[in-house]
Amino acid sequence: MSRNTLSLDDIRGAWVIMPTPAREGADDPLARDTVDLDETARTVDALIQAGVDGIMSLGTLGECATLSWDEKQAFVGAAVEAARGRVPFFAGTTTLSTRETIEHTRAVRKLGADGTMLGLPMWCPPTLRMAVDFYRDVANACPETAICVYANAEAFRFDYPAAFWAQVAEIPQVICAKYLGIGTLLRDINASKRRIRFLPVNNDYYGAARMEPDFCTAFWSGGAVCGPELVTSLRDEVAKARGTGDWQRARKLSDAAAAASALFMPPGGFAEFARYNVGLEKARANAGGWMNAGPARRPYHELPTGLLEGAQKSGQRWAELAQQVRDGTFFA
Amino acid sequence: MSRNTLSLDDIRGAWVIMPTPAREGADDPLARDTVDLDETARTVDALIQAGVDGIMSLGTLGECATLSWDEKQAFVGAAVEAARGRVPFFAGTTTLSTRETIEHTRAVRKLGADGTMLGLPMWCPPTLRMAVDFYRDVANACPETAICVYANAEAFRFDYPAAFWAQVAEIPQVICAKYLGIGTLLRDINASKRRIRFLPVNNDYYGAARMEPDFCTAFWSGGAVCGPELVTSLRDEVAKARGTGDWQRARKLSDAAAAASALFMPPGGFAEFARYNVGLEKARANAGGWMNAGPARRPYHELPTGLLEGAQKSGQRWAELAQQVRDGTFFA
Amino acid sequence: MSRNTLSLDDIRGAWVIMPTPAREGADDPLARDTVDLDETARTVDALIQAGVDGIMSLGTLGECATLSWDEKQAFVGAAVEAARGRVPFFAGTTTLSTRETIEHTRAVRKLGADGTMLGLPMWCPPTLRMAVDFYRDVANACPETAICVYANAEAFRFDYPAAFWAQVAEIPQVICAKYLGIGTLLRDINASKRRIRFLPVNNDYYGAARMEPDFCTAFWSGGAVCGPELVTSLRDEVAKARGTGDWQRARKLSDAAAAASALFMPPGGFAEFARYNVGLEKARANAGGWMNAGPARRPYHELPTGLLEGAQKSGQRWAELAQQVRDGTFFA
Amino acid sequence: MSRNTLSLDDIRGAWVIMPTPAREGADDPLARDTVDLDETARTVDALIQAGVDGIMSLGTLGECATLSWDEKQAFVGAAVEAARGRVPFFAGTTTLSTRETIEHTRAVRKLGADGTMLGLPMWCPPTLRMAVDFYRDVANACPETAICVYANAEAFRFDYPAAFWAQVAEIPQVICAKYLGIGTLLRDINASKRRIRFLPVNNDYYGAARMEPDFCTAFWSGGAVCGPELVTSLRDEVAKARGTGDWQRARKLSDAAAAASALFMPPGGFAEFARYNVGLEKARANAGGWMNAGPARRPYHELPTGLLEGAQKSGQRWAELAQQVRDGTFFA
After folding, report:
1. Given CB atoms, is D306 within the 8 Å cutoff of chain C?
2. Exposure string over D142-154, b if 16+ CB within 10 A, otherwise e
3. Interface TM-score (ipTM) > 0.95
4. Measured between CB atoms, does C122 come within 8 Å of chain D?
5. What is the C-alpha separation between C207 and C211, in angstroms, rounded?
6. DSSP 8-class letter at C10
7. SUPFAM superfamilies from the entry (chains A, B, C, D) (predicted)?
8. If we measure between CA atoms, which residue out of C56, C66, C118, C45 comes closest to residue C294?
9. How far apart, in whole angstroms, are the C-alpha atoms of residue D13 and residue B161?
10. D185-192: long-range contacts (C-beta < 8 A, 24 or more apart)?
């Protein structure tokens, strides 16, 4: 497990943020050992065989909040073993405190994780200094572990100003960011002096790659577990377009995936999405038929019928598109 | 430790929410065993000797977020031992998940705590159903433990509508609420059919007691650790006023405590307070000179100079008022 | 029309905030002269005959936003003529700028209005200094006109801190406030040194009067146009209770009105209410059958069926309660 | 003044949003005729001679809120006369109501304006339907006037979802949008079926043009009144880059302007900017030395010293950059 510490250049291509597969009954308030370790191993292996470039886990949709520490360790162990070092694997170690995050980050590194997808402690909304100090404290205590800043303004109640990126870019372990939107992407690339790879979601990768073709070379996707070929194909079409200047096929793929994703956005927009985030993602994944994510753990077990149906349609649509990519009919 | 389960009538008088005393160096990211157990025991005993009616702990200012589980257990053990059953003791067991909260709630009950001051899991903003189910799940799993709903809209991103109180009032273990403001107090008392004792902060107790003299008979205070006589006196003056109809002395005490508290409110109002909450409370407690709360744990270690000074003035002013109460000069 | 300038002591009892009656077709984007002046005069007279103590107008529900300046003047003229100086009449003169508000305030004073119910310019969220300067500028330019601070944090994007009340209390013309909630009522009464009469909504009057029986002697009501006897009776029962100490009848009235009001609060709470405020109030008034408020003017013409039904039930329920008060069965 | 109605293809290149020049004393609450009409004419002519492609006015920084209707008409008359039809001129007609906006829009059309930069009525936060109906009502009543949707989520409390753009795109008069950010630009271009030209601010034009080189061919700038050559040069360098594929010079210009703009962003971010928006923009313009914007009108007259200095530095820096462009040293 003595892998090298990752650097900026290791972050490229299509990264998948995977759910933590749950066994039947995982939504019981007294359940234990809820992780489906077989499905974990199968999914990790299948993602890598499908050609994805990296895997992240244990964020919001990975149920970092609601898994026990024992379960997280079992999950990471199974995933790392299945990955066999073929692609980087990041395990989220977000907790409510600096000290607990350090402890968990050290432990997942020992289990073989390459990095952590790390959000801020969320009890109180942090200041700029608290936020930067947090990442620096973790980096100092875990020098060999790569850090992906999990930048979710809504969940962590922090707005990630340019000054934040300028300061965390000085921390060598901070090499990438799970990023939302591209509204401030160029600002933040400038602020970080290109020391941080900002990964937009697959829907935004087309725009990011056009704006910054040389630097924006990686993205994340949650929907990919409904069929990873959609994102590996997006990665490859964008790469071709960079050379040829013809972006039509990349745009077609991007728009198709965006249309599929729009199906699972609730009518109330992002504020409503934030409430049902976990359930929506798991319902989409299950409907995709490519992996079995199982039920959402408590207290995030509620999903109103209308939202459930949207998520299911979204997963099915994604699966259809992935099939079209697989059988060569998508661009036909 | 086989104490009876508390009921509504056990919640009366002046309740103190105490900080978790921290040893020197507790603000180090690698610190361990940071709880000052001697100061814990001393503070609990002194509060009870001063005549407070109950103690709550391990909320926001009690650093529930940033203490390790081992530290929390050590703290609860020391506090319970010092209390010797003389007053009820609540230990906060807020975590990011239903299952972990159940585990912690069972454990603190075994350690002798009477109840939990319990906030909602905060990663995603909960819906009404998620919130009610959470309290019901915990109550079902911990039938002997009293629950104080820790109602902080800002921290837990939930607005506690009347329907929430109507539904949690059906759960027998939910007997009180740590409540903020009195703007919806009568609405919520009605909604809960008087099955829940809503504890306003000491600043709001005067108003609450006048509005609902028969039912609003308890309150909480964080400032009380700068000198508990201010709140025991407030309790007693309000009790007298209920009988005599002369509320002047109660009002004078209430206004004096409010003026002292106003000194530690930052210029940016509650939004800014929420960022520096822990540090402000600990600085105030330390400046009061009545207990040693020690430093704030990471990541909440930052406190700008202006805010620190405000907190210190607030603690000193509170201590002066408590001294005036003690020596009988306050009403002179 | 040379009435004296009002002072604090003129603000007492039950104040009604009335809609601006609209003629059929007033919701047409090209409509002109949309005010039903006959219904205006009839309503004002009937309110006064029913015993209300003051009338406010041209706030949010009075469609200050969507009436033309010509229409506002016609409305104020008709209302003042109907009132014949029997009770004070306030006309809202909120606009987007200090200068236009001064012009309108001078004009409505010439038309005979005693005061203005005045909100802040709302294009940009104001600072404390901008807010205080605004009220001071208007007062300086209109020295004979009483000012009721229209304190709506949501509409005017200002949070009305204690410092605001302390500063506007120094302006002689600022004698009262249309106030929401009672969470900070005692704080603000203290801050203003009792120079401003804070009028809570009828639902909060019971609580306010108990907290501050000597000073909280006035309130506002929008629902009163579904049957004013509910609020005159509330005023009288509270007055009796102040003397006897028996608050049961006042509480019963207050709770009944609050239950009727709750029927028109949308499921989404205050945020949703704010969107449909005008339409909800007009639908409630129309369903009450006591006055004809007519349709809501554009762009606030939309009211989803579910919300319309709630508003109608609320108005009908209020009308039933008012009838019970009138015929003496309410307390039977 | 019988100009043709503009269409999508008329919206291209560098558009300037200009302040409304204020005479000395315009910040007095009793001031009248505050518009400096000579400076208005001089500025409009100078912008056109400098090569800008269109002019917008009477938005937030143009003090739509705080100018009287007489002043607005005088301003529009002077501006139209100075423009002599050489470039399109849009006059903001945002008010608090549909009917008043229709009246103003008709009037500015008669005065010769080509279009309106139009925000939503802002007293209540509008729903999707209210917002779409508003633009449709105005368009129906003013069929020859082009509409630029003034999309400012903070000021107008509306989040402009994809469904909004899909629906207003069906209104022929809606041909462009004053747009903030590029985070949802591709989504909204898709939703509107390319019937609406979205104008990002100059800082975002580089990114927008790279993402959508064929369609994103126009942008707006407020800073341009510190030296318009910076934006005409940006327009030209982007146009060249589209052909050559070499975007280095465009990026250098864009980054330099963004760095100058960053100087006038307050430490509190956009929330603080929104409070001081008018004063900041006018201070920047005045410091640029290219035009005389005069003082900010009430109630937006306050600008703390630190923010004033930032705005002045920003204006001076912009002016230096514009000088470097003029004298050919910028790319040297």
Report:
1. no
2. beebbbbbbbbeb
3. yes
4. yes
5. 6
6. G
7. Aldolase
8. C66
9. 51
10. D185/A207, D185/D211, D185/D212, D185/D216, D186/A206, D186/A207, D186/D211, D186/D212, D187/A258, D187/D162, D188/D160, D188/D162, D189/D215, D190/A255, D190/A258, D190/D162, D191/D162, D191/D163, D191/D165, D191/D166, D192/D165, D192/D166, D192/D168
- CA D277 to the chain's CA centroid: 13
Phi, then psi, of B220 in degrees rounded to 5: -115, 160
CB–CB of B29 and A299 under 8 A?
no
* C-contacting chains (≥3 CB pairs under 8 Å): B, D
User: Is B302 in the A-facing interface, judged by CB distances under 8 Å?
Assistant: yes
pLDDT-above-90 percentage for chain B? 97
**A133 phi and psi angles, rounded to 5 deg:** -60, -40
The pLDDT score that the predictor gives to residue B3 is 66
Spatial separation of the C-alpha atoms in residues B157 and B58, rounded to whole Å = 19
State how far the Cα of A85 lies from the Cα of B18, in Å rounded to an integer. 49
- C-alpha B175/C-alpha C253 separation (Å) is 28
Residue D1 pLDDT > 90: no
- Buried-exposed string B161-176: b where 16+ CB fall within 10 A, e elsewhere: beebbbbbbebebbbb
- C-alpha pair distances (Å), A85 with each of A4, A55, D79: 11, 11, 67
Q: Which residues sit opposite D153 in a β-bridge?
A: none
- D239 at interface of C, judged by CB pairs closer than 8 A: no
Backbone angle region of A26, left / alpha / beta, with phi > 0 → left and psi within -120 to 50 → alpha? alpha
Concatenate the DSSP letters of all residues of C101-137 into one string. Answer: HHHHHHHHHHTT--EEEEPPP-SSPPPHHHHHHHHHH
* Chain C CB contacts of B242 below 8 Å: none
Query: Tens of pLDDT along A75-95?
Result: 999 999 999 999 999 999 999
Residues 53-92 on B with a CB inside 8 Å of A are 60, 64-68
Mean per-residue pLDDT of chain C: 97
| C-alpha C3, offset from chain centre | 22
Q: Please check whether residue C127 touches B, CB under 8 A.
A: no
Is the full-model pTM beyond 0.90?
A: yes
Determine which of A66, A103, A118, A123 to mutate to test the interface with B (most B C-beta atoms within 10 Å): A123
Counting as contact any 3 or more CB pairs under 8 A, the partners of A are B, D
Show the tokens assigned to B244.
């005599």
Helix C305-326 with C229-244: angle, nearest 10 deg:
60
Chain C residues close to B161, C-beta within 8 Å: 269
The tokens for C3 are 């009435």
Give the A:B interface size as CB pairs under 8 Å: 147
What type of residue sits at position C182?
Answer: I
| DSSP SS3 for B298 | coil
The domain ranges of chain C are 8-326
- Where do the DSSP E strands lie in chain C? 13-17, 54-57, 89-91, 115-118, 146-150, 174-178, 197-199, 218-221
**Whose CA is closest to B300, among A99, C226, C227, D32?**
A99
Q: Is the model's pLDDT at A2 over the cut of 60? A: no
Alpha carbons A176 and A162: distance in angstroms, whole number: 15
Looking at A146-150, A298-302, B284-288, D263-267, which range is the least confident one?
D263-267
Q: List, for chain B, all residue ranges whose pLDDT scores fall below the cut of 50.
A: 1-2
The label of the residue with tokens 């205080």 reads C132
Fold category of B8-326 in CATH? TIM Barrel (3.20.20)
Measured distance CA(A73)–CA(B50) in Å, rounded: 47
Give the whole-angstrom CA distance, residue C262 versus residue C271.
15
The type of residue at D22 is: A
Is residue B177 within 8 A of residue B198, CB to CB? The reply is yes
C72 is catalytic: no
Angle at the Cα of B163 from the Cα atoms of B158 and B169, rounded to 5 degrees = 100
- Assigned token pair, D321: 């950059």
